[in-house]
């Protein structure tokens, strides 16, 4: 296992536990990703190293809540976004959400990016929609800009 993969996996696991799972006022007192830590604890998160050429067109997500592709090569935020868009078009039952260190995503004063690694998170669309529907019943989305909400929800 390459050193970069081990470092990235450890960093992302720590980011999930120490940031995504911590309540924040920008999310109405909820954590930025209320379901991430449970998925990690339940061993339902798979981390896979890839590059621009080995990122798959199709995957089987069965048994996992999320598969995190960690890109080992340098790529621009635009290239990463394009990879996610193509994947989403080819896989309507899944959702690919990209995170690039050079493209900041924030809700109010809370920066959501992991800040270090170019990644694509792939989740089951139906399950994600169920979680989003539950969160819409709360104050979770009240600080999201209309533009950012549309960008994230309509992928």
Produce a short descriptive summary.
The chain has 155 residues and is an alpha+beta fold. The protein has five helices and six strands.
Secondary structure layout:
Layout: H1 3-20, H2 36-41, E1 45-50, E2 66-71, H3 77-90, E3 94-99, E4 106-107, E5 110-111, E6 119-124, H4 125-136, H5 146-153
What does this structure look like?
With 155 residues, this protein is an alpha+beta fold. The protein has helices spanning 3-20, 36-41, 77-90, 125-136, 146-153; strands at residues 45-50, 66-71, 94-99, 106-107, 110-111, 119-124. The strands form two sheets. Strands 1-2-6-3 form a four-stranded mixed β-sheet. Strands 4-5 form a two-stranded antiparallel sheet. Strand 4 (106-107) and strand 5 form a beta hairpin. The protein is globular. The mean pLDDT is 94.
Q: Can you give the helix content as a percent range?
A: 25-40%
User: Approximately how much beta-strand content do the residues carry?
Assistant: 15-25%
Report the average pLDDT across residues.
94
Class by alpha and beta content = alpha+beta
- Amino- and carboxy-terminal Cα gap: 32 Å
């Amino acid at each position: 296992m390459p050193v970069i993969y081990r470092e990235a996996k450890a960093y992302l696991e720590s980011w999930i536990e120490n940031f995504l799972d911590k309540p924040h006022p920008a999310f109405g007192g909820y954590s930025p990703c209320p379901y991430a830590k449970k998925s990690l604890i339940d061993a339902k998160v798979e981390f896979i190293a890839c590059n621009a050429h080995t990122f798959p067109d199709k995957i089987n997500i069965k048994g996992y809540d999320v598969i995190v592709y960690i890109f080992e090569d340098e790529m621009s935020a635009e290239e990463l976004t394009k990879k996610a868009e193509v994947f989403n078009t080819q896989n309507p039952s899944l959702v690919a959400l990209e995170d690039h260190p050079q493209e900041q995503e924030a809700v109010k004063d809370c920066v959501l990016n992991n800040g270090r690694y170019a990644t694509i998170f792939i989740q089951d669309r139906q399950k994600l929609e169920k979680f989003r529907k539950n969160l819409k019943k709360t104050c979770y989305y009240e600080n999201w800009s209309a533009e950012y909400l549309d960008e994230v929800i309509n992928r």
